[in-house]
Amino acid sequence: MSVPAHAETTPGGTTSCVILSTPDIDRALSRIAHEILESNKGSENLILLGIARRGYPLAQRLAARLEHIDPAFHAAASTGQLDITMYRDDLRSNPARTPQPTIIPESGIDGRTVVLVDDVLCSGRTIRAALDALVDVGRPSAVRLAVLVDRGHRELPIRADHVGKNLPTSSQEKVRVLLRETDPEPRAQGHEDCVVIDAPVASDPDVARAPGQTGGGARA
């Protein structure tokens, strides 16, 4: 996937702009890790579950930061992955999805504080599916949500407890989160991990606007 060094227009009439670079994402994850510890009053009984696919590497990175901040937290034993493929409400209209393994820490999640981790929050339907999947895994004492990007446009009463960046977008824009673990294509230094907005170029200059300006719409 191509990543521009700055905002640029492609031959197809789409403007691509990097919103978060690798250092930006690193800082956002470090801040979220501190927020999680503060909210939980430490790392006791804390479990991180990344929503497949990009939520899992983000959960692993958060877990590594938590372990660095609080050595009492054991990242490898407290991090897992949650697959929501069979719980999605769009499965009939889009059945061509490859399920990922659900990985639950050996200690389980019963009575624990579970932090669900995902890359982008928009309508809230992915998180609804994750909550349904979680019920089949165990009964945590509390469930919280951490996302790298919140682009708004909620369709369900769901909000994130920890957000890397609030990013207002329009329905015409597409948000791409590219990570080394899931998107290994070579990218420029500083963009090994990045968040990119692709937006169509408006033909009328009166309605043209920069990517990220507030508008109606749903997650791409």
Quick rundown:
InterPro entries: PRTase-like, PRTase_dom, PyrR, PyrR_bifunctional. The protein has 220 residues and is α/β, with parallel strands linked by helices. It has helices spanning 22-40, 55-69, 125-135, and strands at 8-9, 14-20, 46-51, 79-82, 113-121, 142-150, 162-166, 174-178, 194-200.
Characterize the structure shown.
- Strand 1 (8-9) and strand 2 form a beta hairpin.
- The chain is an alpha/beta fold and 220 residues long.
- It has a single domain (8-198), classed as Rossmann fold, CATH 3.40.50.
- 20% of the residues lie in helices and 25% in strands.
- Helix 1 (22-40) packs across helix 2 (55-69).
- It is built from 3 helices and 9 strands; from the N terminus they run ββαβαββαββββ.
- The longest helix is centred in the first third of the chain and has 19 residues, at 22-40.
- A motif (PRPP-binding) lies at residues 114-126.
- Pfam families: Pribosyltran (PF00156).
Helix and strand arrangement:
Layout: E1 8-9, E2 14-20, H1 22-40, E3 46-51, H2 55-69, E4 79-82, E5 113-121, H3 125-135, E6 142-150, E7 162-166, E8 174-178, E9 194-200
Parallel strand pairs: 3-4, 3-5, 5-6, 6-7
Antiparallel strand pairs: 1-2, 2-9, 8-9
Helix pairs in contact: 1-2
Domain Phosphoribosyltransferase: 19-163
Keywords: Glycosyltransferase, Transcription, Transcription regulation, Transferase
Motif (PRPP-binding): 114-126
